Amino acid sequence: MTTETPIPDTAPAAPGEVVLDARGVTMRFGGLTAVRNVDFTVRSGEIVGLIGPNGAGKTTFFNCLTGLYIPTEGEVRYKGQVLPPKSFKVTAAGIARTFQNIRLFANMTVLENVLVGRHTRTKEGLWSALLRGPGFHRAEAASRARAMELLEFVGLEKKAEHLARNLPYGEQRKLEIARALASEPGLLLLDEPTAGMNPQETRTTEELVFAIRDKGIAVLVIEHDMRFIFNLCDRVAVLVQGEKLVEGDSATVQGDERVIAAYLGEPFENAPGDEEVAEVEAAEAAAEPEADNTSDAVPGKENDR
Amino acid sequence: MTTETTASETPETPETASAPAPAASGLIGLPAPLGRALATGGGILAVVSAFMSWTWTSAFPGDLTVYGYPGGLQVLVLIGGILTTLFGLASYGVRGLGALTPGSADSALKMAALGTFGTAWYTVIAISDELGGVVNLDPGGFVVAIATLAAVIGALALPFERPEPDPVDPDDTGWELFKHNSRQNWTNFRAAFATKAPAPAPTLPSWAEILVIIAAMAVGLFVFSYGIGTAYDELFIGFLIMAGFGFASLSKAGIVARVSAITAKHRNITMIGAFVAAAAFPFTQSNDQYATIGVYILIFATVALGLNIVVGLAGLLDLGYVAFLGVGAYTAALVSGSPSSPLHVQWPFWASALLGAVVAMIFGVVIGAPTLRLRGDYLAIVTLGFGEIFRITVLNLDGTSGPDVTNGSNGISSIPNLNILGFDFGAQHQILGSTIGRFANYLLLMLIITLIVVIVFRRSSDSRIGRAWVAIREDETAALAMGINGFRVKLIAFALGACLAGLSGSVQAHVTYTVTPEQYQFAYVVPPNSAFLLAAVVLGGMGTISGPLVGASLLYLIPAKLQFLGDYQLFAFGVTLILLMRFRPEGLIPNRRRQLEFHEEAEAPAVLTKAGA
Ligand SMILES: Nc1ncnc2c1ncn2[C@@H]1O[C@H](COP(=O)(O)OP(=O)(O)OP(=O)(O)O)[C@@H](O)[C@H]1O
Ligand SMILES: [Mg+2]
């Protein structure tokens, strides 16, 4: 019951079934509370956005979801099961992710990277590798075929034999997505998937995310590019200083004053009047068309995983 | 003159394309045609001079006094001269020799000329030095000196494409300027030996490719036996110079790349060929003395290859690896029927080898389980500690400080020779008309163990588990996030490495007659010890099969042959490692990934289609 079946348990079942359910997740680093009491759900068939200013705790929250950090408080359930505290077990359970600062296996080829992603969905151990029975060859061929399929899906099939390190930035991000998809997840977490991409690449990534959703995989995406987020997401949550400030559809979030205030800094004692807010909004709206690819040039921080 | 081009690079493309001549000059300012003639002529003259007498007395080893019959170092110069001549002619575009130099004939010529020059001048200087003055040279000595000097000057005068210089920062201080200039000179110097990626090879019929492989194996066997058989220091140094530059010139010529492409295509045939060649080695030797060196090299190389799984593939820096060799050796010694073993049993070889491997593997798991949770440097320190703990424990199990198991510092001695199916490894045998002595017997047995390790390495690296090892090495956090159980996978690598070392140890015990704790230290003058094993892996090339084999051969042969190094052996070893890490960090034989890394320009895609998805 291994490799062949593409994406086993993620057939777009009853839409609305809860895939991810985080309750009261809190993460403290010493005195710093990076994530504070966040409740969060993702349903199947959804694309959910997670936005917030730099240092809001978005990546930390992702790390709590994927077992890289063990939340100080709260629990995370995936399809009703409490997640194990080890990141490889989380992946095996069905949550895959990409990283904010790309973490490919730089000296492996593109194809090998995706094959590593298939690790949890294959079983061949050392003995089978040493003895090389027919089962080994069959499984290996199936893995390769599946990996090539995924590379085609993200548009990298021509580069299968290149070293990952030699790919341009945008393609490295796509390869990370392909590698994550190789573990046949039910939920895909993308941490700033368009950072460093040009507008055209951002658009193809947008289509890619829609295509992933159409395969029945729920997607949770962190992004600073607002246009990308509001185009893409069915629902958006805003994280500010570790707390979930607002959650709702694009229009709700876009119109929320607190979100704007959070992005522009804390309001002064006498909070800006309606006029000023409107002014700022107008300026933003005017600036956005040409500025949409400058906002994504936020450099990844070293402590991000 | 090239500096201007950086300033104005816009409209002059046709001009620069038509007249690249000023940019391309040699390291030495001679006209190119003269240089080429000098180099080729020098090569021919060097060949001729190898047949002359170089010195009047046979006091210098190798007897260089005979006309018409080259001896000792003259043979090396002869080979260098032939290479120089061939590459010289090829650089003239002589028909039929083009196939010899798919890479760059000029760079190959430079390397060959340098090698010949180095060997010849080393000989001439050694003669003058040892015999007390230049008067001891015969005309041949002068001829060879002048011929090789001319060849080298001519070769260095050959033009090459200088890289575009970096502009100088006007604010630089004198020291910065000096650094800048020396960096510039160094890039220029390297460019003088640059070679272009060889054109795609014409497809040969497979029988021809197999012939090429056989020829390459024969050359390899010949060079190796020659190196082992060198009878005196001077010849070995000459051999090192000539072999180093000869190999460099072949790789500049693109031949090495061609041959390795062919061997990569026929991996099984290459492997069989290599083992036949290695098995043929004892038959080429008249004396068991060189088989002794051969078997020790093979033990060292096999253990290094096992270590390469742990270090090269899984990236676990293990500084106590030799302890597993020790565990295997002691286990086999205990059940070998040796009178100093407390167990008075004599197991057949297959059983003791299996036991050695299994016991070493158990030790691997026991040591690995607590330590493999550590990363990087911590793991290195802890394994270093465990390696020493093994040695000290064995030292203390002597009946006074502890129970009597290993006989303490005396070790287990008089380990009887193996006897497999009636074949007595201690006795001489007549096989195919040659006498195969004790060490040659063990060499052949050890070769089977090496074959097993090679197969294990190859199969495991090219599989799900091997990819998981490399992924862990590349980025452990990402590998965990891809669902790899890092601890488990690392433990498998560690245990497998230990098991293979134990297997080698079970043969080593019989080869050396005696096992003592000193053999299994971290650093020791005689090779298989943890420091040298690691050095062999790094020197040869991490993650490759042939790398540790080559690295181990060099690391064993050089100290064994250069007796005069004496106390400076470890010092020379350290300097060599530093130089190597500075100039060739990927090792002598870089693996496929690293090679891809080096040919990134050649591989880089021209156009990127953005229309993915
Ligand atoms: N391992 C850690 N130890 C201590 N503090 C940490 C650690 N990881 C993150 N932090 C802190 O937690 C806070 C949230 O960081 P996080 O990386 O989650 O922000 P983010 O929302 O992803 O920001 P960005 O948009 O810049 O990626 C920051 O103040 C950061 O310094
Ligand atoms: Mg982040």
From TrEMBL, chain A:
Protein species of origin: Streptomyces hyaluromycini
Keywords: ATP-binding, Nucleotide-binding, Transport
SMART domains for this protein: AAA (SM00382)
Gene3D superfamilies: P-loop containing nucleotide triphosphate hydrolases
The keyword Transport belongs to this UniProt entry's keyword annotation: yes
Pfam families reported for this sequence: ABC_tran, BCA_ABC_TP_C
InterPro entries named among the record's database cross-references: AAA+_ATPase, ABC_AA/LPS_Transport, ABC_transporter-like_ATP-bd, BCA_ABC_TP_C, P-loop_NTPase
Ranges for domain ABC transporter: 20-266
Disordered, as annotated region: 273-305
Protein name (record): ABC transporter ATP-binding protein
GO molecular function terms attached to this record: ATP binding
Acidic residues composition-biased segments: 273-293
